[in-house]
Design brief:
Length: 613
């Protein structure tokens, strides 16, 4: 029988537990300052005067500028604060490169520039390299041109031409070139065809013993055995040939077109120097565009595909899935809120839902941003103005500092800007995210007040090109911007776009492929914006001096503004000490430096120490 005393004790315990649970919820609600954008930066870093001007380093590009090779070279030179000189032919390029010390200039070539005057150009390039110059072939001359010119073959380190066209079974990219370690891209029947977006047919060159190979194509094992091929006989893709005091880098294929070229160029500079030191962004973003959609739209298709309306799907399905995926990979979400996605919708957004989502975001350290306008918006300015009025009607003071712009509406963006470079309707916006477009940089100043951050990865897929681009951008920028497009899920064209399918890919991609790059910070889009501004402004210079037990590298950062993140890559040396900041090892011979003052120094020690018996 239950005594009165025990009953009172039990009721007291139940009461205490109930109060604890209720008080936790009440306190969490009370202290949830959802209307404050904690990721927004109070300090506004503007373009530094002279940040893009020429420093000590020079780049000379010889070749046509409409082949897809010039644009990434120009982008890379801008990031590295190098002066870029153009030339249409090899001899003019050599003349301009010859005006500078060999350690201060890189000569980059489009292989088509050697189709005319091949022998003379090859001999002149050979003399330049033997004297200490560095030459990078962003593409190779034609197979026939290389076959007909011995001087060109010697320059490139090609000892034998086997075939103008060979189909490789797999590519191997060796560790130590791009960040991320060894990687294989196989072309067998087990691979999904949609992933095989790197061309696996290329000319077959045997390279000589004095070369170093970074990427190679493999043939089927039976074919290699039947032909008696050794590893050095396989089709070379990326390699370096040393001649005299200089070197030549060669790329066999289209790997230097597009963003992948950025990492390749930094890797080649690293391979031609005793160390590499350059600025990076150190930001990894996960942008969920068009989420939440605050208007119930596309109801018929939603009912057929999901048995939910837009409101229910966003709240009960998408948000829990996004939280789980981001937590697993350690990501910070940047959610670009869409008040309405269809310009033809007659319904009004559910603004009360926005308050709920802002509270959710605040609890998850996510950032609420704004999706500008509608799909195929006939009047972007009108749509943005209507969104501003809807937000003002509920008295929301949240400062949106990040915005998403759909590609089809990009041409209307100037109509939103004021003469001073701010956005008229939403002056708090400091960075705009958009899909990549021809001629658009990964990172750039959109105006004197705002930056642009391009999407670098579609979170719903992961192909060979995506993997190579990821490794390249991490090597060059320490940056990625992954997009999960909710518009595609809500206005799906086929069953492959359903959340059930794309969410599985998204969770797998962001949890798996960034593991080698865990040293880089996960950020919201506004946190990333500050780092992008620092990166675009800063120029890094360094000097080395010998020490009894190694060497010291003294570092100076121009236009320093509180922080700087640098990439340091060494050849068989470990970082032992640092003054003026902290460091994290990314992988072997690669370090991420965080400078907290404009002058810093690192001490390196060789892994191979002398042994005295």
């Amino acid at each position: 029988m239950l005594s009165r005393r025990n009953l009172v004790m039990m009721l007291t315990m139940f009461g205490v537990v109930l109060v604890l649970f209720l008080s936790t919820a009440v306190l969490r609600e009370y202290f949830n300052d959802y209307d404050v954008n904690h990721a927004a930066q109070e300090e506004l870093i503007l373009p530094a005067a002279g940040a893009s001007a020429a420093g000590g380093q020079q780049v000379v590009y010889a070749g046509a500028q409409d082949t897809g090779l010039y644009e990434p070279v120009a982008e890379w030179a801008e990031y590295r604060k190098m002066a870029l000189h153009e030339a249409m032919d090899v001899q003019t390029g050599l003349d301009r490169a010859g005006q500078y010390d060999h350690q201060d200039v890189l000569l980059l070539l489009d292989g088509d520039a050697l189709e005319q005057d091949t022998r003379q150009s090859a001999e002149a390039l050979t003399a330049y390299v033997q004297d200490g110059g560095t030459v990078i072939f962003c593409s190779l001359p034609s197979y026939e041109t290389i076959q007909s010119c011995e001087a060109l073959r010697l320059l490139l380190g090609i000892q034998q031409l086997r075939s103008p066209s060979v189909e490789v079974l797999e590519y191997w990219l060796y560790q130590g070139f791009l960040l991320g370690g060894d990687v294989c891209y196989p072309y067998d029947e087990l691979q999904p065809p949609r992933n095989l977006d790197i061309e696996n047919v290329l000319p077959w060159y045997d390279i000589s013993a004095g070369t170093k190979t970074y990427m190679v194509g493999y043939l089927p094992a039976q074919e290699q055995q039947a032909m008696g091929l050794n590893r050095e006989d396989l089709p070379a893709v990326v390699w370096r040939n040393s001649l005299g005091d200089g070197c030549v880098f060669a790329v066999n294929g289209d790997f230097m077109r597009g963003e992948s070229a950025l990492g390749f160029l930094d890797a080649m500079v690293y391979e031609s120097r005793s160390y590499a030191l350059y600025a990076v962004v150190n930001a990894q973003n996960l942008c969920v565009t068009g989420f939440p959609d605050l208007t119930v739209e596309n109801e018929d298709q939603m009912a057929r595909m999901y048995v939910f309306n837009t409101r229910q799907l966003c709240r009960d399905v998408l948000w829990p899935s996004l939280v789980a995926a981001s937590r697993e990979g350690g990501w910070k979400l940047s959610a670009f809120v869409s008040l309405k996605q269809s310009a033809g919708s007659g319904k009004e957004p559910e603004m009360d839902d926005l308050i709920s989502y802002l509270k959710y975001f605040n609890e998850e350290d996510a950032e609420a941003c704004l999706a500008l306008g509608r799909m195929d918006d006939p009047n972007l300015r009108l749509s943005v103005t209507q969104d501003r009025q809807a937000l003002d009607a509920i008295g929301l003071n949240y400062a949106f500092s990040g915005a998403w712009l759909r590609s089809e509406n990009a041409g209307q963006l100037p109509g939103l800007l004021q003469p001073d470079g701010t956005m008229e309707v939403f002056p708090s916006i400091r960075t705009v995210v958009s899909e990549p477009a021809p001629g658009q940089r990964v990172l750039s100043w959109l105006t004197g007040q705002m930056t642009r951050q391009s999407v670098t990865m579609d979170g719903y897929r992961y192909t060979y090109q995506d993997d190579l681009r990821l490794r390249s951008l991490q090597t060059a920028l320490g940056y990625s911007n992954v997009q999960a497009d909710i518009f595609r899920v809500l206005w799906l064209e086929n069953s492959e776009d359903s959340w059930e399918k794309v969410s599985e890919t998204l969770a797998s991609v962001i949890a798996t492929y960034w593991k080698p790059f865990a040293a880089f910070d996960k950020t919201t889009i506004s946190e990333s914006d500050r780092r992008v501004r620092l990166f675009l402004n800063q120029r890094v210079t360094s000097q080395e001096s010998r020490l009894p037990q190694g060497r010291q590298i003294s570092i100076q950062v121009e236009n320093f503004a509180g922080d700087a993140w640098l990439m340091l890559r060494t050849h068989g040396e470990t970082l032992q000490t640092m003054e003026g900041g902290t460091w994290t090892q990314i992988e072997e011979d690669a370090y991420l430096l965080h400078l907290t003052r404009e002058n810093a120094a690192v001490g390196l020690q060789s892994k191979l120490q002398p042994h005295y018996s």
